[in-house]
């Protein structure tokens, strides 16, 4: 008799799981983040020389269209707002299922996070848009607190309240290809107008939070297993708003000194653009969209410098004269880089 | 632990499965441990209060019984002393942790009338979850032993389970010791039909709470949390919605509690019996929060003299009982006024009864005529709903603003400029109305029959269609999840 009711409850749950798995794509927010991840991870047939992974700093800080226009390098920006290092690791593993880059650049800004988990809504930006796989299951187990796992396996349970505001694009999954020309990059067009209030040149070091260290290690291991070159990056930002009260280390300058030391020890190049602003001609008030994100002008300067670094240190082919890459030229004409550079 | 949580959805099946699996002699210990675990999930300190109330009343009951060994004939009989002492102790705990600030404020107000100025500093004491409910339930035991309605429970652990039984611990139903204690001595075997029936009841409870009550709460919160902001239709709708919100919230809680107990073989009191179909205020109180109404009737109203006294004293008894009932709900004068209003309705009803009878005879109105019943139900609902304004508003000034604004309708231009229904779009509003209609329809259809029994008697396809539809409706239209703040049960704060 126990089996009878247990069996029926299991069948009921199984039917509900199938139903909500099918409904989830309808309920997930149709954001540019979703568009770029679905394109970059699954739909695109392009081969990328370089993959760019990280937080919103990377999302609006490194433009693949600049790398293409100036150096003929193909790349895709997989960064999403609030992408923690653990999420970056699993997202990179997902991208590597289809793509085989020579170089992967990882934004290390979230290595300064002391909380064990990233903000749920921001982690969702990445995990909700990964297809069901063992990698997604592992990502959920490691990047999300246990009480929220179910909402990541079946996102319809998380976004069910959208039932009264769903619009036609939710049902049609909207035209994600229309975003592809940006290659995952999107930055603001505001000019911040203020100087960096937090920057102090220091030799101090701060302990890297344990979970960050663990995932920096995992990313390095992955680069060795998969045979790609790894670069760690940090983007210009005013750290004034980041402190221990907000789940962050108190002294970001000291923390990134430690990341630099760690990267040196591991033989991974670390480009800290916070320390190189003058070197690339970055004018903080004019080239920042806000206190912590570059605008399209700042992103062009940084992307240009990064492209030059890639050319100098890696053997990356220039595809600009290859007719197979003609679409990259057409995409460039639609891009923000075209507005800034031409 | 809230009934509306992933934790409870894991906790309950585990507790029920282990309950049936282990030998009978261990079952009550298992339930006792589970009940304390359930309570301590919110705050481990709550267990101290529960244990204190348990030990005090158990010892009180034992001493009462010991003093009463000689029966009525024995003299002197000092059994009143332990009864009074134990009841005073548990009500003192309740008074200190729930009402201290209220009484200090009240005293300061009264003294200021006589020119004495004191400024009590509000204390920030922990309000233990469920204390009003389990204090009242434990009190029934001492009184019942005193009245010789039950024999004293020798086993402290069994008694502790009576006070702490997790399905009814936080918000009732408040059970009487004479009906509940014997159930812990019964052998509850696994019964497929009973388990299925209990689970179905829980499903309905979740629907009432998550789909209906919490949706109605969106408009109610928007209007009642900013009393001066809205006028006319939104205030009227919010006031009507609150009547159904609190019904579906508390009714939903009760259905989950009764269903969970039923799965394990326990029978709890029906707390709601279609209250909004009542045709008078006294009838409403026989159908609304039945276990609390019964408690006040048996342990306050009748001891005060009930209706077997002078008319003036009878009316005073009614007013006292309902004012105390109001105060039980919360340490605020608005709750007292809410309760007193219900008392006043009944006193006025009794006073006007002869006039009403004469008028009905003169006009030839038959009480059992359909339109008369509908009229009386509508008037009763309006009176109950008016009183709810004080219950929900929180302050007298807020209630006054809402009552004044309720009939101040905005011009069409103003309506066009702002949202007609604050806090919800048209689809949400339609879903809210559909929820009310469904709950009322279930109440109406369930008058003379057990709807669950009817459903469970249907074919597999029909049953499964209902199970699946109910689950899908709750999961899509219900209020839950990391991006929505799950609505706390309203009665869990009492």
Describe the model.
The complex is a heterodimer of chains A (342) and B (494). Chain A starts with a helix and ends with a helix. In chain A, helix 5 (85-96) packs parallel to helix 11. Chain A is globular and about 75 Å long. Chain A has helices spanning 2-27, 32-43, 56-59, 64-71, 85-96, 120-127, 134-143, 149-153, 156-159, 168-172, 210-226, 252-266, 284-287, 296-313, 326-334, 336-341; strands at 50-53, 75-77, 103-107, 229-234, 270-272. Chain A has a 5-stranded parallel β-sheet, sandwiched between helices. With 342 residues, chain A is an alpha/beta fold. Chain B is mainly alpha-helical. Chain B folds into 2 domains: 6-190, no CATH class; 194-493, no CATH class. In chain B, 69% of the residues lie in helices and 0% in strands. Chain B contains 20 helices and no strands. The model of chain B has no long low-confidence stretch (mean pLDDT 90).
List keywords for this structure.
heterodimer, A: 342 residues, alpha/beta, Rossmann fold, five-stranded parallel beta sheet, 16 helices, 48% helix, globular, B: 494 residues, mainly alpha
């Amino acid at each position: 008799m126990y089996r009878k009711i247990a069996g029926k409850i299991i069948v009921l749950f199984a039917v509900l799981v199938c139903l909500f798995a099918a409904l989830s794509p309808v309920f997930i927010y149709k954001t540019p983040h979703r568009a770029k991840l679905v394109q970059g991870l699954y739909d695109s047939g392009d081969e990328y020389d370089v993959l760019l992974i990280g937080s919103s700093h990377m999302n609006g800080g490194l433009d693949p269209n600049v790398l293409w226009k100036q150096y003929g390098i193909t790349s895709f920006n997989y960064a999403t707002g609030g992408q923690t290092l653990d999420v970056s690791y699993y997202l990179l593993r997902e991208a590597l299922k289809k793509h085989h880059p020579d170089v992967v650049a990882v934004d290390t800004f979230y290595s300064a996070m002391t909380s064990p988990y990233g903000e749920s809504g921001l982690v969702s930006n990445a995990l909700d848009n990964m297809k069901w796989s063992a990698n997604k299951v592992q990502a959920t187990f490691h990047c999300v607190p246990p009480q929220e796992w179910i909402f990541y396996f079946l996102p319809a349970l998380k976004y069910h309240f959208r039932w009264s505001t769903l619009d036609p694009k939710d049902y049609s999954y909207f035209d994600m290809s229309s975003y592809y020309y940006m290659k995952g990059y999107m930055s603001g067009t505001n000019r911040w107008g203020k100087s960096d209030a937090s920057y102090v040149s220091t030799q101090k070091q701060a302990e890297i939070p344990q979970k960050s260290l663990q995932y920096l290690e995992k990313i390095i291991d992955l680069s060795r297993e998969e045979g790609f070159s790894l670069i760690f990056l940090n983007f210009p930002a005013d750290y004034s708003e980041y402190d221990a009260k907000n789940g962050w280390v108190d002294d970001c300058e000291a923390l990134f000194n430690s990341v630099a030391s760690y990267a040196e020890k591991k033989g991974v190049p670390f480009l800290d653009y916070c320390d190189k602003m003058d070197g690339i001609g970055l004018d903080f008030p004019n080239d920042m969209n806000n206190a912590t994100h570059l605008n399209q002008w700042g992103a062009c300067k940084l992307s240009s410098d990064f492209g030059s670094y890639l050319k100098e240190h890696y053997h990356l082919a220039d595809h600009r004269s290859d007719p197979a890459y003609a679409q990259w030229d057409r995409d460039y004409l639609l891009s923000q880089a075209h507005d800034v550079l031409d | 632990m809230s009934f509306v949580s992933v934790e409870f959805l894991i906790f309950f099946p585990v507790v029920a499965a282990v309950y049936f699996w282990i030998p009978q002699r261990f079952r009550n210990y298992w339930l006792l441990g589970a009940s304390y675990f359930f309570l301590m999930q919110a705050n481990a300190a709550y267990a101290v209060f529960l244990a204190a109330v348990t030990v005090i009343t158990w010892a009180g009951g034992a001493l009462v019984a010991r003093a009463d060994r000689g029966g009525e004939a024995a003299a002197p009989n000092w059994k009143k002393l332990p009864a009074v002492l134990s009841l005073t102790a548990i009500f003192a705990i309740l008074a200190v942790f729930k009402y201290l600030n209220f009484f200090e404020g009240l005293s300061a107000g009264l003294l200021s009338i006589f020119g004495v100025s004191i400024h009590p500093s509000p204390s920030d004491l922990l309000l233990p979850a469920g204390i009003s409910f389990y204090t009242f339930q434990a009190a029934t035991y001492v009184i019942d032993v005193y009245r010789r309605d039950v024999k004293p429970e020798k086993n402290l652990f069994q008694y502790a389970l009576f006070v702490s039984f997790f399905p009814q611990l936080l918000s009732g139903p408040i059970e009487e010791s004479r009906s509940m204690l014997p159930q812990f001595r019964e052998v509850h075997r696994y019964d497929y039909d009973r388990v299925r029936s209990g689970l179905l009841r829980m499903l309905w409870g979740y629907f009432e709470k998550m789909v209906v009550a919490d949706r109605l709460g969106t408009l109610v919160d928007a209007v009642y949390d900013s009393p001066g902001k809205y006028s006319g239709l939104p205030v009227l709708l919010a006031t009507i919605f609150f009547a159904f919100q609190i019904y579906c919230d508390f009714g939903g809680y009760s259905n989950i509690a009764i269903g969970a107990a039923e799965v394990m073989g326990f029978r709890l009191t029906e707390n709601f019996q279609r209250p909004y179909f009542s045709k008078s205020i006294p009838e409403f109180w026989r159908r609304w929060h039945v276990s609390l109404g019964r408690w006040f009737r048996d342990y306050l109203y009748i001891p005060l003299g009930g209706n077997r006294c002078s008319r003036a004293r009878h009316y005073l008894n009614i007013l006292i009982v309902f004012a105390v009932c109001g105060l039980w709900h919360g340490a605020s004068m608005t709750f007292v006024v809410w309760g007193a209003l219900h008392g006043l309705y009944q006193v006025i009803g009794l006073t006007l009864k002869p006039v009403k009878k004469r008028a009905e005879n003169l006009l030839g109105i038959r009480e059992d005529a359909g339109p008369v019943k509908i009229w009386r139900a509508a008037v009763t609902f309006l009176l109950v709903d008016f009183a709810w304004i004080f219950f929900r508003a929180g302050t007298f000034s807020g209630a006054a603003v809402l009552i004044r604004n309720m009939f101040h309708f905005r011009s069409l231009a103003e309506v066009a400029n702002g949202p007609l229904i604050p806090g919800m779009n048209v689809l949400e509003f339609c879903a809210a109305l559909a929820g009310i209609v469904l709950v009322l329809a279930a109440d109406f259809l369930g008058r003379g029959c057990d709807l669950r029994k009817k459903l469970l008697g249907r074919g597999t396809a029909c049953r499964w269609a209902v199970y699946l539809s109910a689950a899908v409706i709750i999961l899509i239209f219900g209020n839950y999840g990391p991006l929505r703040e799950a609505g706390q049960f309203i009665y869990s704060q009492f």
